[in-house]
Model the fold of this input.
Amino acid sequence: MLFQQIWEVFSTSEYITLVLEGFRTTLIIAVGASLLGLVLGTIVAVVKIAAQKGGRGMIIPNIICDVYLTIIRGTPVALQLFIMAFAILAIRGFPLELTAILTFGINSGAYVAESLRGGIQSVDAGQTEAARSLGLGEGQAMLHIVIPQAIKNVIPAIGNELIALLKETSIVSMVGIIDLTFSARIIGSGSEMATYLAPMIVAALFYLAVVYLLVLIIRIIEKKFKQSEQHIDEKKMEKCRLRMEKRLRAIDARYEKTVARKEV
Amino acid sequence: MGDTGDIMIDVKDLHKSFGHNTVLNGVDISIRRGEKIAVIGPSGSGKSTFLRCLNLLEQPTAGVICFEGDEIFSAPFAGEGERQKRPRPIPSRKLNAYRQQMGMVFQHFNLFNNLTVLENIMFAPVKLGKQKLRRERRLRLFSRGGEVPAGAVSSVAQIEKEAKDRALALLERIGLADKASAYPSTLSGGQRQRIAIVRALAMNPKVMLFDEPTSALDPEMVGEVLALIKELASEGMTMVIVTHEMGFAREVATRVLFMDGGKIQEQGTPEHIFGEPTNDRLKDFLSKVL
Done:
């Protein structure tokens, strides 16, 4: 009976279009918000780190970041969404989806910022010191040595944040955006279906598929970054060696090319 | 031994405190070219802080540091118990140029974990070489076709090529050429420290600073690292070594400093320091460690 109803959701074009449209809305909001969140989070993390190191002119930006972090992390995201949709951005004709992207982006930025900051701080101070002792600047040390190691440390946390964000977007139905969750509700409340369970399960399958995909991607990225940490086996070592030799040959080739050009 | 070259680093009345904790309390020393200075003393005596102040990883609270006649850092000491004004930060270009001439070797190696051994060694020469090239090009642009000095590096390709050749030669020298593509985490402590030394050498420094280079090593690894440092010493490199290896200090150093309570309590040739110490605290210290 239940399977029949689930099949009905998939096979009825009216239903499946509604679900797919909702799914698209969910994805648009999630992707937009995570991009905004990553950008905002990086900016805030950099400001906080710079302020901590006693950077000049960082006092006011630091205060702004602190206020931002406190407010966003101290209030429920549903409330933030209401405030944005019904008060701040309650402008006629302003697309609700954009409101949702902004709300969730600003919200996730706060969490991303804290993860990133933790990641940067978890990199041993000796790494920066070594770079500085060789005569490299603060920025160069940060960019080439500290941040690559920090990213490796924060990939799991950021990945979890993105997954949570995707699922959290389901509350946009509260302001009337037809996302995946809302579309399931609409189908369930229709007179023909008359059950919530089947469409909800279909929606759940869609969420599960995306989350599972995200988990896989995160695992692959993590593995890529962990390369420098693993106890490398023979095969991987050989691969590293080949890659290095290729790079060294490229350096030689480039040098010979410039020498040849000069002689001409 | 007993070289008496010109004065390379001149330190006057160096003070450093962290909050209310005074670590360096007036250190004066002139380091001549070619000297090998061993700094010994009990823990907490300010040895490492002194070394870190030398290349300004810690900014001193007061004092003067001159390198080859150039004043790198200068802030007058306000006096005992007086409120010390915070010294002005050193312009970063000057600071970085100064540090490029000083190699530093750390207790915990501090190899860049995200780079392979070869990349570790090439990183600074390539990055800084490119930076210098950009700066020169910019200058040349403004001075309108000024003469390029003979032997000047003229292309990124040349910088990379030279850095690569030098890095490979250095690895060959310490017998770790086969580890060029390995990551630091796969190496032993002794190998890491030797690579850290070579990484500093890749910048062609005029002075090498060693901050307890063998303290974090397993006993059987100490020998290989000390051998490399000894080799450098015999080539005439100027160096300052903070160490707990008394035998090594005696063998390699041309001058030994004994620090305690943030001051140099006694200094002299190894024969003098280890053979006929006059300072009571030094006598006490030696009786405990020898």
Notes: The interface with chain A takes residues 55, 57, 92, 96-100, 102-104, 106, 108, 110-116, 118, 123-124, 127-128, 155, 157-158, 160-161, 164, 180-186, 196, 199-200, 203 of chain B (CB under 8 Å). The mean pLDDT of chain B is 89. Strands of chain B lie at 7-18, 21-32, 36-40, 62-67, 70-75, 102-105, 207-211, 238-242, 255-260, 263-268. The longest strand of chain B covers residues 7-18.
